[in-house]
């Protein structure tokens, strides 16, 4: 049976979360009221997964994640307040090594979380399949500067899809792309509304590209990137004169998620007649496999992250199984692989 440690400064929340996990077949071996207790509980019980609150006294969730990853790496799922501060803290925790997060509905303490019990159990179960050691690979590998020349094809488009463990890898890929490549970049990261805007801001600060959260009807050109808005599918609705027109819609979730990678990749393959590259990164499930097939059929290039550097080797594995992936690379080489697909001599 899967063993979990629940860390939250609210006794009420610890009880609710523990009850939900126990009912879902997960054995809660310990509860902790702050980060220090959480670190001690992980050392004592060696769980398969930890749920971690962000804001706590003495030692907060970010510090606790860092301490656990240093001492005894274990998959950690952050439970974050659905606020701007909560989003910023969550991304910092992901940077430190947490594999995924779930937004607490309604604030820090809310009975509404019980209505999201299935999602919590699913997230915790998914997190247990993550390899916490891969986080160190992504975070500590030296990143060589990618050469910047002007030998790129005109009007290239890049579609990047990711899920569990994806934010830090997406950030790494985008930060490695030179503005000279003049890509139009579409990012689909499985993430709830309220977090995708903050994610776009982080990417904007850490890359040479102008990154924004997607809006219905917006157009993007070279040197610009968008992040699919949480709870909306992002379609490529039109393409002309080197600019993409986007459409946001709320059709039924695909593969249980919205936004779905397949929706963006398949519409990009249908509408774009210029150079097109699809990339699938770490994550659970099969979203992106059909999209990679569509991009390949349309004459585009495809890249997948390798198993060693994935937190969860689900999305890339399913894409590779289609036979439509051109290149499989570690996280720190994905950016170079993308640039190789748009060389004007290649």
From TrEMBL:
InterPro entries the record matches: CheB-like (IPR008248), CheB_C (IPR035909), CheY-like_superfamily (IPR011006), Sig_transdc_resp-reg_Me-estase (IPR000673), Sig_transdc_resp-reg_receiver (IPR001789)
Post-translational modification remark: Phosphorylated by CheA. Phosphorylation of the N-terminal regulatory domain activates the methylesterase activity.
**What is the protein name stated in its UniProt record?**
Protein-glutamate methylesterase/protein-glutamine glutaminase
Task: Cite the residue spans of the region called Disordered.
Answer: 126-148
User: What domain of life does the native source organism fall in?
Assistant: Archaea
Which residues are modified to 4-aspartylphosphate?
A: 53
What role does this protein play?
Involved in chemotaxis. Part of a chemotaxis signal transduction system that modulates chemotaxis in response to various stimuli. Catalyzes the demethylation of specific methylglutamate residues introduced into the chemoreceptors (methyl-accepting chemotaxis proteins or MCP) by CheR. Also mediates the irreversible deamidation of specific glutamine residues to glutamic acid.
Alphabetically, which GO biological process terms does the record hold? chemotaxis; methylation; phosphorelay signal transduction system
Write out the similarity annotation: Belongs to the CheB family.
Task: Print the keywords alphabetically.
Answer: Chemotaxis, Cytoplasm, Hydrolase, Methyltransferase, Phosphoprotein, Transferase
């Amino acid at each position: 049976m899967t063993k979990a440690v629940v860390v939250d400064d609210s006794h009420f929340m610890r009880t609710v979360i523990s009850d939900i996990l126990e009912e879902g077949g997960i054995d809660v071996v310990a509860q902790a009221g702050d980060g220090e207790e959480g670190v001690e509980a992980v050392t004592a019980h060696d769980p398969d997964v930890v749920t971690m609150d962000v804001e706590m006294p003495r030692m907060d969730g970010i510090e606790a994640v860092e301490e656990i990853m240093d001492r005894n790496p274990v998959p950690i799922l952050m439970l974050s307040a659905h606020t701007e501060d909560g989003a910023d803290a969550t991304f910092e925790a992901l940077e430190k090594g947490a594999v995924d997060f779930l937004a607490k509905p309604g604030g820090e303490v809310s009975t509404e979380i019980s209505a999201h019990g299935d999602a919590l159990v699913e997230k915790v179960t998914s997190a247990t399949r993550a390899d916490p050691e891969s986080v160190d690979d992504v975070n500590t590998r030296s990143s060589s500067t990618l050469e910047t020349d002007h030998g790129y094809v005109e009007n290239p488009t890049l579609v990047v899809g990711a899920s569990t463990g994806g934010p830090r890898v997406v950030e790494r890929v985008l930060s490695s792309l030179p503005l000279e490549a003049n890509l139009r970049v579409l990012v689909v990261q499985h993430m709830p509304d309220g977090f995708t805007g903050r994610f776009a801001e982080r990417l904007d600060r850490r890359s040479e590209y102008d990154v924004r959260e997607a809006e219905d009807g917006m157009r993007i050109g070279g040197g610009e990137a968008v992040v699919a808005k949480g709870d909306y599918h992002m379609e490529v609705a039109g393409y002309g004169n080197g600019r993409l027109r986007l459409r946001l819609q709320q059709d039924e979730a695909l593969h249980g998620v919205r936004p779905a990678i397949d929706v963006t990749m398949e519409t990009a393959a249908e509408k774009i007649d210029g150079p097109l590259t699809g990339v699938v990164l770490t994550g659970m499930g099969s979203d992106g496999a059909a999209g990679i097939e569509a991009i390949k059929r349309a004459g585009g290039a495809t890249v997948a992250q390798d198993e060693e550097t994935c937190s969860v080797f689900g999305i890339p594995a399913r894409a590779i199984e289609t036979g439509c992936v051109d290149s499989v690379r570690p996280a720190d080489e994905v950016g170079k692989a993308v640039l190789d697909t748009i060389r004007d001599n290649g």
